[in-house]
Amino acid sequence: MTAARGAPGEWVLLSYRLPREPSTPRIAVWRKLKRLGVAQISDGLVALPAGARTREQLEWVAEEVTDSGGSAAIWLARPATRCQEDQLAQAMAAARAAEYQTVIAAAAEAAAGDPAARASAVRRLRGELRGIQRRDYYPPAERDQAQAALRALTVPGADSARSAQRARAGGPARTPEKRARQAQEEPA
Asked: Is there a single domain that holds both residue 67 and residue 124?
């Protein structure tokens, strides 16, 4: 999403202002921005890495702001330094890492539960994971761990809890294929 390593990449900025009352439009805009995974630069100023999709998403939010009696403007900009861009990217990655940690913890908790609850948790967590991945512009290591924890839930038997726990600790999750290969390699 960024330019060559030495130069900062382009970002789409949304500058907006909404009236305090009624609060419903403000809350709706805030929730949409959160769902998009924006970087909050300051009050009323958010950013996403530039791209056709991110620009369109922020244009839709800007339209909603103006429809609610507020003001909004879309800007294309580059941070002055690579360091500033790295700070934005790190803040976005840290926010996604926290979301992935929540999925990992929920998967570990579901792995310890009964199979019926586990199936329901798998469906719910898959949806959560897809939502997080849609707003994950700078994937942290926790992304792979969350995917492994979710895969571990779909493996029947007691190994599921161990695999989810291993994924939570940052270790590799053992898939059925890996277990079968390991069993063949072990001496009898």
From this structure: no
- pTM exceeds cut of 0.90: no
- CA–CA–CA angle 138, 144, 147 (5° rounding): 120
**101: in domain:** yes
- φ, ψ dihedrals at 184, nearest 5°: -70, -30
Q: Please give the Cα distance from 90 to 106 (Å, whole number).
A: 24
Q: How many CA atoms lie within 13 A of 171 on its CB side?
A: 10
Please name the amino acid found at residue 171: G
* Distances in whole angstroms, Cα of residue 186 to Cα of each of 48, 69, 180: 50, 69, 10
Per-residue pLDDT averaged across 104-125, rounded?
89
Q: Other C-beta atoms within 10 Å of 64: how many? A: 17
pLDDT at 2 over 50: no
Instruction: Give the E-state strand segments of 36-187 in sequence order.
Output: 39-42, 45-49, 71-77
The whole-angstrom separation of Cα 182 and Cα 38 is 43
Distance (Å, whole) CA 143 – CA 118: 20
Amino acid, single-letter form, for residue 178: K
Separation between Cα atoms, residue 14 and residue 78, nearest integer Å: 13
**Residue 71 lies in domain:** 11-78
**Other beta carbons within 10 Å of 108:** 21
